Amino acid sequence: MLARLRTESEGGSVLEAAAAAPAPWTTSPSPSLTWLYGPRIRHHRPLSAVPRPRPRPPRVPRLRQAPALGRPRVARQPGEGAGQQGPGLEAAMASVRSSAASKRGQRRSRSEEKLIRQEEERKHLEEEELRLAAEQLEREIVEQKRLEEEERARIAAEDKIRKDNELPELLQILKMNMASVQKLHKNLREATKLLDELQMLLSDTPPDELAEATADQYLHTICNLQDLLSNINDKATDILLQKAIDLVDIETGNMQEVVNDENVTLCLWANFNKNPRFKGYDFVNNHVEFELPRPLAMCDIAVRILHTQYDHISCHIPLFQAQQKAFRNDTILIIEEEQPDNKEPEVEQPDNKEPEVEQTDNKQPEVEQTDNKQPEDIKSKHEIDSKLAIDDDIKRLRPTRTRSALSSSSKDEVLKNKWPSGERSPAHAMANVELLHEYPSEETLDESIVDFNQYTPLGGVYYFDVLKLPPQPKIVNGWRIVQLSETGLQPFSYPLESAKESISSLGTIEERDADNHPVQPVGITIKLPPRALFFEKPTPARWDASGVVWRTDGIHSVTFDAETEQLSFKMDTFNIFTLIQRNYVNMPFQSWDIRPVAENEALLTVHSALVIVEIRIKELCQLCPISVKDNLAHIRGKWMTASSLITCMINAGLNIFPGTESEKYVAKTIKIKQLEHDTYTQMALVASAIAFKWSKWNKNCEQEDIILQACENLTGEAVDEDSWALYLLRPERSQNLNMKESDDEWTRETNEHTEFYSNLYHMMRGHASEAALERILNADHLFFTNVNEMLQATKLLSHTV
């Protein structure tokens, strides 16, 4: 080192001396080994491939600085003094210091570079590991997809093979089931059609044209057909339940099936999932929903909701037909007394109306007295002869009243006429429910029992049943094993016997509606039937088979949504139920009129309490169609007999036909029944040419008087108000009043240009023109019969206020 520092005195710089000095680690081959091993020449690889060691920079000695002077110590030559150092030494020292500082900076940068290299290598390793892991994961995903594709392909192949074997079998089973059900429903439609024809035949055939034995045979046939319809519905249900496992829904795990027909809707649900939290099911498309009690959620059961558009339950009740058609009780069928050949015919009168018979008998001597006087007026004699001829025509036409109409005879007489002694009625008929079964009288009638004088069942009948689920088919070794059973449908008992005893201990309905009810009730929600017209909130009624009556008790939590027409309620158990409505919801009438439209054609318009009814009458009758579709579309525009139309309107909820006990339920104007009856008959005789209308004076006059408006109308157009004339009808005579409907005061004065007549018919003929008289004389007997029956059924004169 001292030699290197002295290079300045020898004429060279320190750096040049350091560069010229050989590296301390470089050595030359020893001359003593050269002769032994020869020159060190490597022939197995080129020199460019031989790694060369990195040349190390020359080491510069670190000079220690003197403590006092703060600079490095320098070795001095012998004999040199402190004053001989000079500027060259200082420059050398500065150069050494700068070189040492640069070496320290280089040494720090190499450590940092090493750390950076290590960090880069670590990151590189991590990236490499991540890349390898990603590649591995990608390979695994691809492999998994390949395996899944292979599995799907295998499953698809197996499914195709299975479909080729199983689907034809399933389709065949379903086809057989549906074919069986469709065949049953076809038989059902045929039986229903035959049943309707038989009922129409019984109601429209005159008594003298239908023998009593034939009528009884028809009644038996009707009962058998009703029994057949019930068996067909049960058989269709049994067919679906026996193979319900094939109809299980994948989403719910249960079977829910709907079979629709023109007259029947069958909603069937079978419990296969057995979910304890199951609450109920909603047949959305059919607007039917039921709530299942929790104890039944784990049972092998099926729930059936069968809705029939017809009612074959109410006919089991004694006197139902008489009560449903109370408008016929004492107005249509009149018992005719035999007349001697030498006597002139008399107008028929009921046997139980002696005062009215006396009034009618008083009229006959008056006619005879007029005949004995032999007046010179040919017109008067012609009127008398015409009266006798018309009375004879009325007598001849009256037996054509419907056979189903019943007089006001007692219940025993009705039963005797319907079921002759010695004959045994079929099952599920009125006789099967024991016609001798005493129907509750008004004194003993329970408030919960439906009174058909006040209510009418509408919309058919709902059969709400819970049934035992029959054994289902099983597949064993490719064989389909089915357990056959001949028992048919088996009802499931709910509630249990212990629960029934608890229910019987609850006496009142309020106690049954309490929260501590021993049995969870059965809930159901339905939409109002599409073939019934409800003018108020409907009332549900359940069938009591033991009492053979409809009852309203045992039903609670009734709610009705008028916008959606949804009715919800709960019952103590599964039961048959129907909906009832008051008979007199559309009474009393506000006004009415009947006017001729053409020859042998008239239009009857009734403004009831809630709706306007128009009936067109010809040889047949028609409920006039309207622009807005309603629930009566199935009968609107169809021509049928008067009795059939009346029955259809009552069953559809459009009841404008009061019964004999109507005064108990609706306000009416009291009139003499015989006078009212004769007025309807005479109005029907001239309805082809004369228009009639109600009068406001009729409700304020005496019961012996009937006041109405009349006017000749041959054009078929509406009559002007000024053209109407007021007529006063009394048992002894009829007259045209000298006043108008718009007058403020009532008067009995007769019009100066008119005469007194004995009845309305001859008065109308006396005021009619030749064209109108020709129409009246040529009136068709079917037209007369239909008009008379409609007027007798509506009782417009006494039920318009």
Strand and helix map with partners:
Layout: H1 2-5, H2 14-20, H3 31-37, H4 86-204, H5 212-242, E1 255-260, E2 264-270, E3 280-283, E4 288-291, E5 301-308, H6 320-324, H7 354-373, H8 378-397, H9 411-418, E6 455-468, E7 474-476, E8 479-481, H10 497-505, H11 509-512, E9 522-527, E10 539-544, E11 549-551, E12 555-561, E13 566-571, E14 576-582, E15 591-598, E16 601-607, E17 612-617, E18 621-623, E19 639-640, H12 642-651, H13 673-686, E20 690-693, E21 706-712, E22 725-729, E23 734-736, H14 760-767, H15 770-777, H16 781-794
Helix pairs in contact: 4-5, 13-14, 13-16
How does this model look, in words?
By secondary structure, the chain is an alpha+beta fold. The chain is 36% helix and 16% strand. It contains 16 helices and 23 strands. It has helices at residues 2-5, 14-20, 31-37, 86-204, 212-242, 320-324, 354-373, 378-397, 411-418, 497-505, 509-512, 642-651, 673-686, 760-767, 770-777, 781-794, and strands at residues 255-260, 264-270, 280-283, 288-291, 301-308, 455-468, 474-476, 479-481, 522-527, 539-544, 549-551, 555-561, 566-571, 576-582, 591-598, 601-607, 612-617, 621-623, 639-640, 690-693, 706-712, 725-729, 734-736. The strands form 4 sheets. Strands 19-18-17-16-15-20-21-22-23 form a 9-stranded antiparallel beta sheet. Strand 7 and strand 8 form a beta hairpin. Helix 4 runs antiparallel to helix 5 (212-242), helix 13 (673-686) runs parallel beside helix 14 (760-767) and helix 13 (673-686) packs antiparallel against helix 16 (781-794). Mean pLDDT is 75; it is low at 1-21, 23-37, 68-72, 78-84, 324-383 and 395-440.
